[in-house]
TrEMBL record:
Homododecamer. Its EC number is 4.2.1.10. It comes from Vibrio fortis. Catalyzes a trans-dehydration via an enolate intermediate. This is 3-dehydroquinate dehydratase. InterPro entries: DHquinase_II, DHquinase_II_CS, DHquinase_II_sf. Coiled coil: none annotated.
Amino acid sequence: MKKILILNGPNLNLLGTREPAQYGYETLADVEENCRKVAAEYGYDAECFQSNTEGSLIDAIHKAGREFTQDECAGVVFNPGAYTHTSIALHDAIKGVEVPVVEVHISNVHAREAFRHHSYISPVAAGTIIGMGTKGYKLALDFLLDK
Ligand code: DQA
């Protein structure tokens, strides 16, 4: 079955207990389970991966890029966490592959600290979903899979 990658960056393993006023009470396992259900409705398999390490996220994007060229992967739903605001390496990784990447932020980063207002990911993303809570993952899947 063709897949879609749900990729989460640093600290998103703490969802559910981390700053619930910003990120809500759903755990990462809840979010991933929901993504699997939504993807299955479209006939896709959601592969879920979270890492607190920049290099592992880069490797995951490269792998999705290779799978995209082999028609095995439809896209990437990516919440890069704080690397959004710092990582030229993730920007370059996305730019270096063909697979469409949708950037998701649970919180409205533009209503928060100034250092969260700039994204290195947005210029290379197929689209960006910000401030819609964990529902953003579903919206990204709808965009990528509803053909
Ligand atoms: C986040 C926003 C980032 O600024 C923050 O560093 C995160 C989560 C979000 O989903 O709202 O870790 O990407």
